[in-house]
Amino acid sequence: MSRTPGTPRTPRTSRTPGTPRTPGTTRTPRITPQPATGRPDTPTAPAPTAQAPAAPAPTAPALPLLRRFLRQEKSDAWAVRLLPRIVFGVAALYTVITLASQSGSAFFAVVTALLLGLALWLLRRRTQLLLAIGVSILAIAFTGYFSAVGDAARTSEDAGATVTGAAAFGYWALAGMALLGAWMVKEHPGRRGITVVLADVILVIASVVGMFLPEAGVPLGFLGVLGVLAVRGSSAKAVAGRARQALDRLRTRKASDPSDS
Length: 261
Hints:
It contains 8 helices and no strands. By secondary structure, the chain is mainly alpha-helical.
């Protein structure tokens, strides 16, 4: 299409694909839509959120602890168990206070019993140590009794005999030696509590012998405790293993010696 010289060119207009272009119409400028968040005067709509689940209907408040305790309903295990515990606890506390207030020796005995019970409760999971401590206490009691009986018998036979009571302290020291010796070994081959039991049994037997022979009681107990600790310890096991190896070597040498055949 030719145009007359001196006339301006008609601008192109945007058209929809497939429609004919109309001559003489101006193109409408394209307008790019801007996001709504870029405009300060445009309010931003909140993002849709998931609806929270409906709150459960309020239930009736639980009964107070005092009312639960006073009602003693069979279905309430807490209230049913708490009543006998309170009753027996008050009775035990009253008994302990009554016994401890009688005399100084009674107070000392009650405190000792409480401390012993606390120690037993703390050691309830360590059966070997608990066994060793219990047997050691019994051994101390028996050896002290036999030592006192022997001293009383010697005093009744000879009025001029001097009784010092040193044998009882010797037996108690040996009982402590057996208890400590079983736990001083780092790797004990057997049960430590059984080791203490064997040592205390030998110690009680030695105290019985000491009733008749006072000079032989403590040395015999010392040798017995030392022998049990040596036999039950790891050193005795190592010595026994070496002796067994030596015997095996001697047997192999005798079997391979041609002069015997």
